[in-house]
Amino acid sequence: MLTTEHILLESDFREVPRRQDARTVHAHIEFRSRLRRRVLQLEIFDYYYLSVHSHARSVLLEYVLDLRFIDGPRRLRRIAWRWIAFSLLLITLSAGIAWRINSSATPWWQNDWLLPVCVTVIVVWPFAMLVSAYRTTETLTLFSTHGATRLLECTGGLGTFRFFRPFMAKLAAHIRLAATARRRTRAEHLRDEMREHLRLKEIGVIPSGEYETAKVRILDQHSPAAQSAPARASTRL
Predict the structure, then answer these.
(1) Quick one: pLDDT at residue 111?
(2) Domains of the chain as residue ranges with CATH
(3) How far apart are CA 26 and CA 41, in angstroms?
């Protein structure tokens, strides 16, 4: 007979401190992306909390993340190879046109085909370079541990990883520190994480659909089968 366990999320609700009430600020960074019109401010305070202030176009978000329920930062680099190749093709074409002009005895303005090609290359090449720069991105993402929900994402151009490197090293250290402050049993920690997802959904950080998906993932980890798997693995060793 299958047994089920009911988790009452409304009870034992944890109070997450506000940024204004911080006693100690351990690290601070401000990231501005003019190309994407975004300002992101991050602060680690009171050892276990990350304050997020994000202003992208007309959307303003302010919230606090509990580092006890967050995985280490993940990095993803996307390079717009097609647009870069297209830009190089235009540069090669412009070099060929310059060579043709230099080697021809006819003035360039008297060539019926050369002038339109020159104008096209001059107009299209800066646009291709801008698109290749916009689509070549470096993204830093924070996910919840068992819910695997995206809680923070910062996308910028090349150099974003280098800019964030000192701050991310401190953040990873505080995430490891926060892991030592989790509840003693796995079941208690999973219940706390589900409450954390509920809190973030209620303040608008997590959409309802993603919250339901994360809840299913956490409940799967909370099941007896998931809890007995590590025990079976250690027995085999």
Answers:
(1) 63
(2) 19-78+136-227 (2.30.29.30), 81-135 (no CATH)
(3) 14
